[in-house]
Amino acid sequence: MSTGYRSMDRRSFLGTVTAATVMGRRLAWAAERHKINKIGLQLYTVRGEIKNDFDGTLAKVAADGYKEVELAGFSIDTGKVTYFDRSPQDLNAALKSHGLTAPSTHVSFQALQPDNFAKVIEASKVLGHEYIVNPWIDDDARKGPDGWKHAAQTLNRAGEMSKKASFQFAYHNHWFEYVPENGKMPYDILLEETDPKLVKMELDLCWIAVGRQDPLKYFDRYPGRFPLVHVKDLTKLPPAPTAGGQNYGDKLEEMTEVGSGMIDWKHIFAHSQKAGIKHYFVEHDNPKSPFDSIKASSQYLAQLRF
Fold first, then answer.
1. 3-class SS at 241?
2. Least packed by Cβ within 10 Å: which of 152, 187, 208, 306?
3. Tell me, what's the pLDDT at 286?
4. How far apart are the C-alpha atoms of 251 and 117, rounded to whole Å?
5. How many Cβ atoms sit within 10 Å of the Cβ of residue 71?
6. Largest alpha-carbon pair distance within the chain?
7. CB 24: neighbour CB atoms within 10 A?
8. What does the pLDDT look like over 98-152, one tens digit per residue?
């Protein structure tokens, strides 16, 4: 009887050890799975450095652990699209030479007009984008009567043109979309008035914090609508101006490197699957030392598990 007891105890013990080992492996796998596999950088962060040393800047971006970039520096003049004063072909070759890909780009609101946007789409084919993003609705377009609804129509049209060309269109917020107008937040108007199949959102997780809103509430309300996010941090919440002002971020002293501020990245990114996040782009509007800044942010995100 005692032998049987010891035998059963041993079997139970071995079963427990085996279960614990399997569980441990599953937990380790889960921890490994819930990380950012490809950290991206919005190149606006290093715009000055790119102007001074284009290839050297891309080399440092890649060396600091970034696999993806999001383009800024868009221009369309005399019918030609350029980024950082370079043709799409030249830029694509430079990115490839440094092992970088550009899944998305920022283009101006004026570029969404049909004739201009057709050229944006052609450039996006060359550059291998997945997403075309409008980061800013011009003041005169959103300040008129029903300005946000009219802007949403423009976004829908660009989204339809994008879809036909096998791209996904998206809109990037600032803080002023969370300042109520006539009792309603413009960001809510855009989400309601745009077709979710045509217009996704690139959620700037710094600006939504400045706007005193909770991103998780939007993830719950609009699951899968946020395939792109901007990842930048704040030492504290600054007072948010009620007007637009494109250069507000350039003057924001509270902006800091990712992981050194107040935003709880682990908590937010634990909901990445619900949000539909596929690309994470580090950004700092005006870093004191851009290369030190992007390196610190990359190192923090590389070790983050959620």
1. coil
2. 306
3. 94
4. 31
5. 24
6. 94
7. 10
8. 999 999 999 999 999 999 999 999 999 999 999 999 999 999 999 888 999 999 9
Distances (CA, A) of 297 to 42, 104, 287, 294: 12, 20, 11, 5
Task: Report whether 153 contacts 167 (CB < 8 A).
Answer: no
β-bridge partners, 231 = 282
Token pair of 134, please? 């409008």
Q: What is the pLDDT of residues 201-212, one digit of tens each?
A: 999 999 999 999
Domain made up of 36-303: CATH architecture: Alpha-Beta Barrel (3.20)
Q: CA nearest 173: which of 201, 193, 210, 153?
A: 201
3-state class (DSSP) for residue 286: coil
Q: Give CA torsion, residues 250, 40, 73, 131, to 10 deg.
A: -120
Cβ(272)–Cβ(306) below 8 Å: yes
Q: What is the pLDDT of residues 174-193, one digit of tens each?
A: 999 999 998 999 999 999 99
* DSSP conformation letters of 41-83: EEGGGGHHHHHH-HHHHHHHHHHTT--EEEE--EEEETTEEEE
Tokens of 287: 């870093």
The β-bridge relationship of strands 68-71 and 101-106 is: parallel
Q: How far apart are CA 301 and CA 306, in angstroms?
A: 11
Torsion sign (Cα): 130, 114, 122, 83: negative
Domain boundaries, the chain: 1-33, 36-303
DSSP helix, strand, coil percent of the chain (3-state; round to 5): 50, 15, 35
Cβ neighbours of residue 239 closer than 8 Å, sequence gap 6 or more: none
In angstroms, rounded to a whole number, what is the distance separating the alpha carbons of residues 76 and 78? 7
